[in-house]
Specification:
343 residues; 1% strand; 2 domains; elongated; single chain
């Protein structure tokens, strides 16, 4: 249902402008109806019919019809004066970033002032501008009306269909470009990764230092140290030379445990030093060497990567191409939410 809020009207202080809108709307309706009737009067068939019905009316209206352009200019002058008034108020209120934005945003009002047949229809758009302004200030609420839901639904359908077709077209062109031998991987390596090597190296160095400090920490690094101890212990016990120490009387098992603990500490500390001592320059040299050694001659890998990218784009196209607006008709419950006249 259409709702009108008098309290919001008082709060917005748009009462005088609403009154002006209603006056201009009345003049607009009179002007448009008059234009239609005058266009019909220009037809010889209509004039003959009116002559047969009431000849004095035709004789009285003929001078008006001949000078209708001047009469229409009176309406144009009123509309143009109101347009300039609103422009001046918008400049004073600083409603837009620049003073000259107003005529571009309200272009339909300006074009409607042109006294030509094809331009006069734009005067009708003032109705929508008035409704939008009232909706903006919450003076009226059109969202619950059937007409609004109907228009909003088909607007969403139109936007979705257009955007889906555009996205699918763009992805299809990308697939054709890749299939034609576009050096995608080499471009990614040179233009994307290589330009970000310093930042990436710095980040990796900071992460490795953080990991090293975590391993060294008594509390947070216990899990890593336990894992290293188990791995080293397993390797030490599996070594035939170390296992032979177990046959030494009294001291064999003690030596084996001491050796296991010593190797565990050495491996753990080496891991901590490796992580903490690495620098961003070293990581950058390593990554730079890895990227520079990549060769586009490896056609097998390049072909597989192109296939992966192509399949990913195909999946994206399938997902984008789904007409999600049709889900409004899938179930009876959803059909109730659809605008009237759709099912």
């Amino acid at each position: 249902m259409f709702k009108f809020s008098y309290s919001q009207l008082k709060k917005s202080h748009e009462g005088p402008w609403l009154a002006l809108d209603l006056i201009m709307l009345g003049l607009l309706i009179i002007n448009l109806v008059w234009i239609i009737l005058d266009a019909l009067f220009a037809s010889q068939f209509i004039q003959d019919a009116l002559l047969s019905l009431y000849a004095p009316f035709v004789e009285a209206y003929l001078p008006i019809h001949r000078n209708f352009a001047i009469i229409d200019l009176v309406f144009v002058a009123i509309f143009l004066s109101e347009f300039c008034l609103r422009w001046g108020v918008a400049v004073v209120r600083k409603e837009y970033m620049r003073w000259y934005f107003f005529p571009f945003i309200h272009w339909y009002d300006l074009i409607g002032c042109i006294p030509l047949g094809g331009m006069r229809i734009f005067r009708f758009l003032r109705v929508f501008s008035i409704l939008y302004r009232l909706q903006k200030y919450q003076i009226i609420d059109l969202r619950q009306t059937a007409a609004y839901r109907f228009i909003a639904f088909y607007y969403d359908v139109l936007v979705e269909e257009l955007s889906d077709r555009i996205v699918v077209k763009v992805l299809s062109d990308a697939q054709k470009d890749i299939a034609a031998g576009s050096p995608l991987l080499e471009d990614i390596s040179r233009n994307v990764l290589a330009s970000r090597l310093p930042v990436l190296s710095q980040w990796l160095a900071a992460v490795m230092v953080h990991i090293g400090e975590s391993v060294q920490d008594v509390k947070h690094g216990q899990a890593i140290r336990d894992h290293v101890q188990r791995s080293v212990g397993k390797a030490v016990r599996g070594n035939s030379q170390v296992s032979s120490l177990g046959i030494v009387p009294f001291l064999g098992s003690s030596i084996e445990r001491t050796l296991e603990n010593a190797v565990t500490d050495i491996v753990t500390q080496s891991l901590v030093n490796l992580l903490k001592d690495v620098t961003a320059t070293q990581i950058g040299d390593f990554l730079d060497h890895g990227l520079s050694s990549f060769s586009s001659d490896d056609t097998k890998l390049d072909h597989e990567m192109v296939l992966i990218v192509n399949e990913c784009l195909e999946l994206v196209k399938q997902h984008v191409g789904q007409q999600r607006w049709k889900s409004a008709f899938d179930t009876p419950a959803q059909n109730k939410a659809a605008p009237s006249g759709l099912s």
